[in-house]
Write a structure and sequence with these properties.
Largest sheet: 5 strands, mixed
Radius of gyration: 37 Å
Number of strands: 9
Order of helices and strands: HEEHEEEHHEHHEHEEHHHHHH
Oligomer: single chain
Number of helices: 13
Strand content: 5-15%
């Protein structure tokens, strides 16, 4: 009598389960993990010598030899199948050399970041370095237009544009201005000339943009290429554009204060190169005046500054602005550090000169603001 009783007990413990595989549901009866796996192979026509099954119940995989977890009648089990041949082929095959792994991706990302920031071994024709703190942090040539990559292309490659950006950033006079004025720019970038030409055509004429400053120095974009894209603009013109955009670090609108600050930057730039030339300094075997293309301008710094500002604002400076510029020349010449062609005096180097420069600049700004308010009052009076 014991044998029939045992048989009945086993039949009662087998339960109805629903296997879900590839969107279809198949019913099986089992009482253990082994019987579920065997039933799945048979019901799904997946021979055990060709397929490996992974059956999941209540979020856990059924393991051979284990008992079934507490399942309700008609519980659903998810089935996943892998071809044994395909698995073995994947384990023995070599990795695709054209597909980078995570380590290779990290290395490539680090290399791109270093290229963008400019490595310590990357030097320009000036063979100088930027200030450690007051500098252009990253360089970004226009790489998305594929300039210079085609055999028939006549425009310089993005590599050359990057060299030009580095040359502007490491120009010793620009480095001096960045340090003296405590400027720091996130990105010095090449402005997309194609995008600019399309914008000009859509807007219907007007002066083509030469550069722009975003968020007072977060980034500065400079148009490097000529209108026909066959080369780069003259270096002195690019420097003037860069100085113009640096002035926007402090002053946003093109008001009297802005034009006076731009005139100061231009004067500082020319006088810095004049001092270097007088000291006999050479860069890559050439005079700084030759490399910067300002030999004619430094012969009369005042006239060069007035001409540059007048050309940029498309109108000559008013007499009051000229007087402010002359006052700036007088202050800096008395200080000695920025005199035209003059050498720095012993007592004006270091921190003392820096504070003196800050005081002089603050005085000039206050005078420019007073002048602007006076002009506004006069305009209101005329109305």
């Amino acid at each position: 009598s014991g044998s029939p009783s045992t048989s009945v007990s086993r039949r009662r413990t087998r339960m109805r389960l629903l296997l879900q595989f590839k969107g279809k549901t198949t019913e099986v009866h089992a009482d253990s993990a082994d019987t579920v796996i065997a039933a799945a192979h048979d019901a799904l026509a997946l021979p055990s010598d060709e397929w490996r099954l992974k059956i999941v119940a209540k979020g856990k995989q059924l393991q051979p030899g284990a008992s079934l977890p507490a399942l309700a009648e008609g519980a659903k089990l998810m089935v996943m199948a892998s071809s044994i041949t395909a698995v073995e082929r994947g384990l023995t095959s070599r990795s695709d050399p054209t597909v980078r792994g995570f380590a290779a991706e990290d290395e490539a990302a680090s290399r791109r970041a270093a290229d963008t920031a400019g490595g310590a071994d990357e030097v320009s024709v000036w063979c100088t370095s930027q200030d450690a703190e007051h500098k252009f942090c990253r360089f970004e040539p226009c790489t998305w237009q594929s300039f210079g990559t085609r055999p028939s292309s006549t425009t310089p490659h993005a590599f050359e544009a990057r060299k030009l950006l580095l040359r502007l950033a490491t120009d010793p006079a620009v480095v001096g201005i960045m340090r003296e004025r405590r400027y720091r720019v996130g990105t010095l970038a090449e402005m997309d000339p194609i995008d600019d030409r399309l914008a000009e055509k859509m807007e219907g004429g007007g002066k083509r943009l030469l550069g722009y400053n975003t968020n007072h120095g977060m980034s500065i974009h400079v148009r490097l290429r000529t209108m026909d894209l066959r080369g780069f603009e003259a270096y002195p013109s690019l420097v003037d554009t860069l100085l113009h955009e640096l002035a926007h670090n402090e002053v946003g609108p093109h008001n009297d204060l802005f034009w006076h600050l731009f005139a100061q930057l231009k004067a500082d730039y020319l006088r810095h190169h004049a001092r270097l030339a007088q000291s006999g300094a050479l860069f890559s075997g050439a005079s700084p005046l030759q490399l910067a293309g300002v030999a004619e301008q430094v012969s009369d710094v005042r006239a060069a500054v007035l001409g540059t500002v007048a050309r940029d604002r498309m109108a000559p400076l008013p007499p009051a602005q000229e007087a402010l510029l002359d006052g700036y020349f007088s202050l800096t010449e008395r200080r000695g550090g920025n005199a035209v062609g003059g050498a720095e005096r012993q007592g004006d180097s270091g921190e003392g000169a820096s504070h003196a420069s800050a005081r002089a600049l603050a005085a000039e700004r206050a005078e420019a603001r007073r002048l602007q308010q006076q002009q506004q009052q006069q305009q209101h009076g005329e109305r």
